[in-house]
Amino acid sequence: MKLSSNREIPTIFSRLIKTPWFPWLVFIFGLGLIGWLAFFWRLGTPGLLDETEPLFAEASRQMLVTGDWITPYFNEETRFDKPPLIYWLMAIFYRIVGVNEWGVRLPSAFSALMMICLGFYTLSYYVQQTQFYPTKNDKKSGSNSKFYQPYLNRIIFHPLPWMGAVLMAFNSETIGWARIGVSDMLLTGCMGSALLAFFLGYAKSEFKDQQDLSQPWNSANIWYLAFYILTALAVLTKGPVGIVLPILIISSFLIYVGEGRKVLREMLLLKGSLIFLLITIPWYILVILVNGQNYINSFFGYHNFARFTTVVNHHSAPWYFYFIVVLMGFAPFSVYLPIAIASTKFWKRRYWQDQTRIQQLELFAVFWFSGIFLF
Q1: What is the pLDDT of residue 320?
Q2: Exposure pattern of 241-257 as b/e (b: 16+ CB <10 Å)?
Q3: Alpha helix (H) ranges present in the chain?
Q4: Is residue 141 one of the residues assigned to a domain?
Q5: Which of 118, 192, 318, 357 could serve as 206's disulfide partner, Cβ 3.0–4.6 Å?
Q6: Does 2 reside within a domain?
């Protein structure tokens, strides 16, 4: 009986490999393992850290206690330094897993996992397009709509997406912020995913004929709309920075490659703006109606304008501080960053303008890093 069972195992496994959904199992299991090791393993074991994490944890708990989901409070005092999304998510997870460290940190962990998964998808799409449709002269109608056919196995097992996922997940900056219950990783996850969603919409639009672009639910339009939704969530996480930084990065990139006007016409600007406003504006109106000028002065005045123009909370640092942060926070991969940036030859504008949109991913990454770092 044992010998028969042992013979059946390779047979079952060989059949499993041949099924069309086996690559999806690899995708789910692989990224799930990366996310579990980096973000979820023993997530709730350490107690609340520093003085900041308890502020978020208690403000979220008080939302449950008071039933006031508009104005955040801590010890019966208003807490206006952050918009409500982080508090809402923590309160929701309190309902699911209880008022504990897991509930405090799960929003950060899931935000990091979302960005890793979308990064993996973007690199997988990059592999498919650059391997099988490498030049602008190879614009086969609808080619990029067949993302997983007929090369799914070759794409899902290509090392580049997996290397990208590992690099994004296993560095001290990502691991650290994904394991603490504050708003930073939620902002990073929403804003990073928004930028990836924009680039996917931008890249997928290139090979669509006009008839396909007119369809409301083609893949390019879906990714563009996802960009607006994710930037709106970023604004509900930390305020104006959630839209200012993506606009700065995207507009600089589009001007450089000469695609600005064309992209503005194709990215559903009116519909996307309405979606963005419908998600963001209601809470800001309600919180101002309830708290008046106090909220405006505190959030927009002190926590946004003053933080950008002056030193607040003694958070001063020398000019080279963020060079050290990048070097140490993303070690050991950060030592290759100057070489990686130089290898793109980003200064060769004409060269990049002649590339397909998906091939401009490396250049987009340079603008992304530069925009965040210099801002």
Answers
A1: 80
A2: bbbbbbebbbeebbebb
A3: 2-18, 22-35, 52-66, 85-97, 101-132, 152-156, 159-169, 172-178, 184-205, 210-213, 219-238, 241-257, 260-266, 269-291, 293-295, 307-309, 321-329, 337-343, 349-353, 361-374
A4: no
A5: 357
A6: no
Q: What is the pLDDT of residue 210?
A: 44
Counting the structural domains of the chain, the total is 1
Q: Which residues pair with 78 in a beta bridge?
A: 73
pLDDT in the model for residue 1: 46
Q: What pLDDT is attached to residue 22?
A: 77
Q: Based on the number of CB atoms within 10 Å of its own CB, is 342 exposed (0-12), middle (13-18) or buried (19 or more)?
A: exposed
Contact indicator for 112, 97 with CB cutoff of 8 Å: no
Note whether residue 97 is domain-resident. yes
Q: Is residue 74 helix, strand or coil?
A: strand
- 159/147 Cα distance (integer angstroms): 17
Residue 161 lies in a domain: yes
What tokens appear for 210 in the block?
Answer: 């006009």
* Phi, psi torsion values for 135, nearest 5 degrees: -130, 165
**Three-state SS for 21?**
coil
Radius of gyration of the chain (CA): 23
Degrees, nearest 5: CA angle 365-107-167: 35
Domain that holds residue 78: 22-134+148-209+217-374
Nearest to 115 by CA among 196, 40, 33: 196
Kindly give, in sequence order, each residue whose CB lies less than 8 Å from that of residue 67, ignoring residues fewer than 6 positions away: none
Is residue 272 classed exposed, middle or buried when 0-12, 13-18 and 19+ CB atoms within 10 A define those classes? Answer: buried
Distance, first Cα to last Cα, the chain: 67
Report, as ranges of residue numbers, the positions in the chain whose pLDDT lies below 70.
1-18, 20, 132-151, 208-217, 301-317
Handedness of CA 340, 343, 346, 351 (dihedral sign): negative
**pLDDT recorded at residue 142:** 43
Output the pTM of the full model. Answer: 0.89
Residues 60, 69: Cα–Cα separation, whole Å? 9
Helix (H) or strand (E) holding 76: none
pLDDT for the residue 156: 83
pLDDT for res 317? 67
The answer to whether residues 119 and 101 touch, using CB atoms and an 8 Å cutoff, is no
